[in-house]
Amino acid sequence: MAAPAHTMPAATGQAQTYGNYIGGEWRPAASGETFEDRSPANTDDLVGRFASSAKEDVEAAVAAAAEAADGWRRTSAVARANILHKAAEILASRQEQVGRELTREEGKTLKEGIGETGRAVQILRYFAGEAQQPSGEHYPSMNPLTLLYTVREPLGVVGVITPWNFPIAIPAWKIAPALAFGNTVVFKPASLTPLCAVRLVEALAEAGLPPGVLNLVTGSAGAVGDPLVRDPRIAGVTFTGSNAVGADLRKIAAETGAKLQLELGGKNPAIVLADADLDHALAHVVSGAMMSTGQKCTATSRAIVDRSIAAAFTERLVEKVKALKVGDPLQAETQIGPVISEDSAERIAGEVDAARQSGANLLAGGDRPSENGHGRGHFVAPTLFGDVDPASKLGQEELFGPVLGVIPVDGMDEALAVANTVRFGLSASLFTRDLGKALTFAREIQAGVVHVNSETPGAEPHVPFGGMKGSSSYSREQGKAARDFFTQTKTVYIDPPPA
Ligand code: NAP
After folding, report:
1. 6 within some domain
2. Which residue has the higher pLDDT, 121 or 373?
3. Nearest CA to 384 among 331, 468, 315, 455?
4. Banded model confidence at residue 358, pLDDT cuts 50, 70, 90
5. How confident is the model at residue 13 (pLDDT cuts 50, 70, 90)?
6. What is the pLDDT of residues 72-112, one digit of tens each?
């Protein structure tokens, strides 16, 4: 692929510098400042330099989005769909390269990086189709001559704020529906993964989005995120990230009146009953807990296991967790890459130590590998605890790393009670051969995404996604549900003029 127009030509071995995308132009931050993006697998690897933006850049981006809003709202849904289709094809043609950059920037394995880029392509294609679906309903009226119908209209300018853990899929599943349904966007990606954001915006810009319809502003939470959510021209904010930031955004949105969508953390259980296929359950619990280095919001962090099989199941879990290959995520044989940052690695290691000191039973991992060059990355060994107290911090709080705790229980009722006794409710799995228990689980579990005999992270892009309780703001992303957030309803009564 040719170097994009906004990159500064780099001498061999030097990292490129990437700008903001505002009003259809790639440009540096007004201050000219940049920040560095380094690979979490090896901090000697400088991925790029990005615009270190501030309030004035946000203001320029919101102004561009506000100016473009009427034109985009009036653009036919078919024309919008065509642009999304074209962006999907552009990104698909770069899937391998962007997937590799994702791995370098975020640290998940190459297979996952390329897979996630493919997911973004799928999402763009899905919303190209969804743009052309019915956007309202026709109703009978009390007056037989009245044409009475509803139509879903865009909100206006939407602020999109995304985390680093799915650095291209999450932006795609917010930005694609926002655009498909006629909104203009100001996008602030996570500071740890700005390159994926640039690659997504490039594909959409090259596909022919008019200037101002999509704007990218990179920079810190305080300098970019905060002014963005406080801007009175922002009609809606869609945010995925931590509960602490989500709580702050609720207060700000209450003041500005912006529509707010929050997708937050999880403490996701996988219940394994005595009648489950244990080989199958083991594979799914390990993969659900450890892939992407445990940094999926839907990752399994509690294995709630029937006491009659808990010892045997845990013994096999220990073997599997110890056998996971930790290393350079760009190498094909690697199963577990680094966590995203040194802060994260230290936080997770600190929580593991605290759990150990309060008597939790450490069965595997718990350390920070430093051999084979791992010392230059943010590595945390896949970690397993046995006999976890469900009320302990380890049993209650999201660690967001490769850490799994086994909680033995006596039967289905206790399993469900333990699974539900957390403030989160994002995803949950049950492993069983008993159809009655599967139905009970689907009915009683407090989670927005429910799996029977498959791992907690599974999520297809064409169905609603989101959590219950503290895991979201009761709204859903993806699938047909996406229209609910990105539009508002207008009810229209048309009577004929008096004869
Ligand atoms: P985070 O620290 O809350 O940051 C998320 C995004 O918000 C980043 O772009 C961040 O910018 C920005 N931000 C932070 N403070 C802000 C503020 N005061 N105002 C405006 N923007 C602000 O979360 P994270 O560490 O990136 O992500 C991990 C969390 O996301 C986990 O809890 C995980 O469970 C959750 N998650 C949830 C889902 C879901 O669908 N439910 C999916 C994925 C992840 P900077 O990067 O510049 O700090």
Report:
1. no
2. 121
3. 315
4. confident
5. low
6. 999 999 999 999 999 999 999 999 999 999 999 999 999 99
- Residues 62-73 have pLDDT tens digits of 999 999 999 999
Digit-coded pLDDT (tens) for 400-458: 999 999 999 999 999 999 999 999 999 999 999 999 999 999 999 999 999 999 999 98
What is the Å distance from ligand 1's center to 297 Cα? Answer: 11
Question: Based on the domain organization, do 252 and 283 belong to the same domain?
Answer: no
Which atom of ligand 1 is closest in space to residue 477's alpha carbon? 40
CB of 221 shorter than 6 A to ligand 1? yes
- CA angle at residue 488 from 486 to 489, to 5 degrees? 140
CB 124 within 8 A of CB 344: no
Cα of 164 from ligand 1 centre, angstroms: 7
One-letter amino acid identity for 268? N
Q: What is the DSSP letter of 235?
A: E
pTM above 0.85, yes or no: yes
Amino acid at 83: I
- Decide if pLDDT at 47 tops 70: yes
End-to-end C-alpha distance for the chain, whole angstroms: 65
Ligand 1 within 6 A of CB of 227:
no
Does 332 reside within a domain? yes
Domain containing 439: what range? 268-462
Q: Are 173 and 304 found together in one domain?
A: no
Based on the residue annotation, tell me whether 202 is a catalytic residue of this protein. Answer: no
Radius of gyration from C-alpha coordinates of the chain: 24
Coil, strand, or helix at residue 171? helix
Q: Do 426 and 400 sit in the same domain of this protein?
A: yes
Residue 42 belongs to some domain of the structure: yes
Tens of pLDDT, residue by residue over 135-187, are 999 999 999 999 999 999 999 999 999 999 999 999 999 999 999 999 999 99
Together in a domain, 276 and 258 = no
Tens of pLDDT, residue by residue over 257-305, are 999 999 999 999 999 999 999 999 999 999 999 999 999 999 999 999 9
Asked whether residue 35 is domain-assigned, the answer is yes
Residue 131 near residue 88, CB atoms below 8 Å: no
Phi, psi (degrees; rounded to nearest 5) at 427: -135, 160
Number of domains forming the structure of the chain: 2
Considering the domain architecture, whether residues 164 and 305 belong to the same structural domain is answered as: no
196 catalytic residue (yes or no): no
Decide: 190 in ligand 1 pocket, CB within 6 A. Answer: yes
Q: Tell me, yes or no, whether 272 and 210 share the same domain.
A: no
Domain boundary residue, one of 229, 264, 299: 264
| 288 and 234 within one domain | no
Specify the CATH number for the domain of residue 225: 3.40.605.10
**CA separation, residue 241 to residues 2, 161, 261 (Å):** 33, 8, 11
101 Cβ closer than 6 Å to some ligand 1 atom: no
Is residue 256 located within the same domain as residue 227? yes
